[in-house]
Amino acid sequence: MEVKEENREEYEIHGGFNQDTISAKYDELCRNYEEVYNSVGWPDPSQCAEKAVEHGYTQESEVLDMGCGTGLVVDYLKEKSGADTVKAIGVDASDGMIKKAEEKGTYTEIRNFLLCNLESFKTNHSDLIGRFDYVTASGLLAEGHATPEVFDEMIEALKVGGYAIFTSRIEYLEPLNYQKGMDERVESGKWEFIKKEEYEKYSKAKDCPLGRFKPVMSEVFVYRKL
Ligand SMILES: C[S@@+](CC[C@H](N)C(=O)[O-])C[C@H]1O[C@@H](n2cnc3c(N)ncnc32)[C@H](O)[C@@H]1O
Asked: Start and end of every Methyltransferase domain (predicted)?
């Protein structure tokens, strides 16, 4: 990976996330988001798309893409499935990221709101309840981004039999209570575990670690709503 000295700051400003400032932070990061992530190696959105295709995604499927950002999950869904169009609704907290995704014209609709508030989700977005074949969340389970409450929103948004497909660094699973959150919803019969797979991200930053970008192990998870 080659980083020009004048671009170094674009990598170092990533990090220090928290839920109160997440939208302002991504409004800043959006200007070079895809260039930065693609240059360090960002398999999360393609991992989510691949798992959706593996679990029966077709052009007719309805997708809710949580933390859609600039729209990479739908880019990969099109590439991996061969679909011309994708029936996807995006949700994101950052206007800047949403604008980038909208410029691609690949989502049916994108809504700006903060996830991880189940009551507000059910009250203000009742048309999203019980509607989707797939809920994807690439890069949303991360420090200062989403709490395990987002799993309830995924479950609410899915049809029975629909799939929740999301990624997380392995090192976040215990401290951020993501694993506990997944397990609790298995125990309460809300969803069943289908599979998980490990992969390395930020691999291209191996010889040149920058800010939070250095190779790290992640997992993609697949759960099915019961
Ligand atoms: C690392 S980016 C991932 C974007 C895209 N899914 C991808 O794979 O490239 C995380 C995105 O989640 C959004 N986000 C973070 N926390 C959020 C929350 N609580 N509610 C809604 N969006 C959130 C951010 O604005 C950002 O666009």
From this structure: 61-168
Cα separation, 136 vs 156, in Å, equals: 13
First to last CA, the chain: 44
- Nearest protein Cα to ligand 1, atom 27: 69
Backbone angles phi, psi at 18, to 5 degrees: -150, 160
Residue range 99-140, pLDDT digits in tens: 999 999 999 999 999 999 999 999 999 999 999 999 999 999
Are residues 167 and 52 in contact, defined by beta-carbon separation less than 8 angstroms?
Answer: no
Taking only the tens place, the pLDDT of each residue in 67-104 is 999 999 999 999 999 999 999 999 999 999 999 999 99
Name every protein residue with a CB atom under 6 angstroms from any ligand 1 atom. Answer: 19, 22, 26, 44-45, 67-69, 72-73, 91-94, 97, 114-116, 138-140, 145-146
Q: Where are the domains of the chain?
A: 5-225
- Please give the single-letter amino acid code of residue 184: E
DSSP H/E element including 138: strand 132-141
- The CATH code belonging to domain 5-225 is 3.40.50.150
